[in-house]
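Researcher: Here's my situation. A collaborator sent me these components and asked whether they could plausibly form a single complex. I don't have experimental data yet, so a predicted model of the whole assembly would be a useful starting point for our discussion.
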Amino acid sequence: MEKNKLTIALSGLNNIDSPGPGIPVVRGLRDSKEIDARIIGLVYDNLEPGPYMHDLVDKSYKVPYPSDGVEPFLERIRYIHQVEKIDVLIPNFDSELFTFMKSEKILREMGIRTFLPTLQQFEERHKSNLPEYGKKYGVNVPYSAPITSVEDFRKMQDKFEFPVVVKGKFYDAYIAYDMDQVALYFNKIAAKWGLPIVIQEFVRGTEVNVIALGDGKGNTIGAVPMRKTYITDKGKAWGGITLEDPTMMDLTYKIISQTHWRGGMELELIRTTKNELYMIEINPRLPAWVYLAVAAGQNLPEALVKLAMDIPVAPFTKYDIGKMFIRYSFDLIVELNEFEKLSTKGEL
Amino acid sequence: MVKIKKNIAISDSGFVFDPGSGDSYSLNPSGLEIVQLIKSGKDFSAILEAVTEKYEVDSDSFERYYYDFIATLAQLHLTDPDGKE
C-alpha cells in the first residue's frame, strides 16, 4: 500500500527528564504503515533535543512562546506554512493548547488541520473545575479548590485535612503536610506557572493512568491503561506497564462518550485500597508515554493524524497487556554549527 | 479451596504477573510447585499428600509453611477472595 505523504508539524520536542510528548508522538508516526510523514519541529528553546534528532525530525523552526500573544505566534506559523505546506499540526503542551484552539479556524483557513478538544471541553476539565466536572459526569474526584493566595487557603482550611496536594494550573504538584509547606509550594508553583493554584484533597492509593483518543462524536478510538512502575522525583514515569483493567476502560469510555472528547487525552487516576477509582486530572493531549500505547498495538498518533485528515479510523479493540517501557537518557552529540543555526536563524 | 485468580500469569520459570496491578513476582521452585498444585485444583490435603510423598517434610511443618505462603499470596491479591480453605 502506498503511504499517504503528509507534512506534520508538532511541538513538545523537549525530550528531557520531564519530557514533552513530541518525540514519542514522532516515533509513533514513523512506525506508521499508512503515513509517510515529513516532521516539522516547532521549538521554543535552542536546547530542546528534538531539533538535533535528525532521524526523527526533518526540519525545526523556533516559535515564540504562546505567552507572547496569538498574533506573533500565528505570524510565525504562517511563515513556516509558506515554506513547508503543513497538513496537520499537533500541539503537545498544555500551555499552548488554548492558543491553538482559539486559532483553529484561522489555521484551517490556511490549510492546516488540527484535532483538538473544544474550548468547552478544555475549560471544564481544568483542575480548578474538577469538583463540578465530577458531579456533572458522575465521576469520583477528590475535593479541590482554586486559590489565588495562601490566605485563601487559610480561610477554607477546615474543608481540608493534611496532607493536601498543591497543584499548578498546567504543571507541577506537591504534597504539603502543613501550612508552611502549602505556602512554600504555592510560591514555587505560582512563580513558574502563575495563578490560580489548586489545593486538592490527597487520595491515598496507587496512581494509574489511561491514554485515550476520542473522535469528538463520543467514540473512543483507542485507550490503554498503565501503571507507572518507576517514578522520578518530578513525579514523571521513568517506567510503566500496560494493565488489564476493565473498570479503568469503562471509566474512559464513559468520560469520552459523555463529553464527546475530541483528540488525545490522559486520565490520571488513583486506585484506593478499597478499589475505588478517583480521577485526579485530565490532561488534554497525548502524554509523553504515548509510545507505550503504540508498542502495545494502538498507534494513537497515527490515528489522531487520520482523524485530523478526515480519514476514517476504526476503533482499536485490543492492546498487549504487560507491555513495559523503561525510559533512558542518552547524550546526544551536537555540532556547534547546528546549535548556531538554530540560535541565529531560528531554523535547523 | 484456595484459588489463584484466573488472570494471574505464571510461567514455568516461576515468574508471576498480575495484569491488574502490573506487579510481578518470582517464585522459588518449591513455591512454584505449590502454586501449580493449587492451580490444578487440589485442596490442602491433596497438596499435603503430594508434598510429603515427594519431600522429607512432616505434616505439621508443611501445614504451617503452606498457610504462611497462602497468606502471602492473599496479601499480594493473587488469590481469589471468594476461594476459601
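Model: Some features of this prediction you could bring to your collaborator: Strands of chain B lie at 9-10, 15-17, 24-26. Residues 9-75 of chain B form one domain.
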